Amino acid sequence: xxxxxQPQPQVDSELNSNGTLATADRQQRxxxxxxxxxxxxxxPGVVALVxxxxxxxxxxxxxxxxxxxxxxxAPGERGGSPSWEHPLGQDDIGRDILSRLIRGTRVAxxxxxxxxxxxxxxxxxxxxxxxxxxxxxxxxxxxxxxAVLAFPLLILLITLAAVFGPSLWTVVIVIxxxxxxxxxxxxxxDVLSVREREFVVAARAAGAASPRIIMRHVLPTVMGxxxxxASLSVGGIILLEASLSFLGFGIQRPTPAWxxxxxxxxxxxxxxxxxxxxxxxxxxLTVLAFNLIGDGLRDALDPRQRE
Length: 307
Prior knowledge:
Blueprint: H1 2-5, H2 8-41, H3 43-60, H4 97-133, H5 135-150, H6 153-164, H7 168-176, H8 181-194, H9 198-205, H10 210-247, H11 258-265, H12 274-300
Helix pairs in contact: 2-12, 3-4, 3-12, 4-5, 4-7, 4-8, 4-10, 5-8, 6-7, 8-10, 9-10, 10-11, 10-12, 11-12
């Protein structure tokens, strides 16, 4: 009788554990479902998401959509107007503008998402450490954040790009390592309010190490505003990359970038205005789409929003 009754507590414990995990999993799925329903209510955000998804497909396989080689030159057709063969016309040396815009989409997305990932990693790490430990650690890191934010960003980017030499990955690293301060400030402020909550105090009393508490308990609680800020910042990074390329410190020719395409056409703005109109439209629409997605995420991740 005793032998058969001994395994029962272990079974009950396993059932309770599985039940707790299942409940947590259901709650997480329910929260994601509610957030998606709130996001869908914002129609401009949904349209922007579809637009960015389409651009993402184009960026992944640009060769499938390019009607011509983006490097092919037709000197006798410089500044050619839009036609059936070249729907968006040709640039100042006869290259197909549509093909170069499509190839430039990949460049824009690589820079935008890679630089955002670098900035997120640095900013979230610095902000979490400053907010959780406080004291002199917070003072030192906060002054570092203030110093980074005090520099004129575009001038700092131009200086660093000139020092290290313009290239795709130089642009990614330079932008990523100079735009993290805004993430650090947001994360620090949220962590300061979270670190004294009951679940963090309980984890600390249970002997959990500080890195584990930050990663498992603190950061998941404060990531909502960070996700919104990141989605809004992607458009800003695309503008920064376009600015650098326009000034000659970003992506170098013959690799097409929307900013360098604008630069190529500035001398011909009166004779061949289509050379700069279409890259400008692409920059405008892409930045606008990311901003609309950010607005939708802000409403979707706000717990005060009603269903």
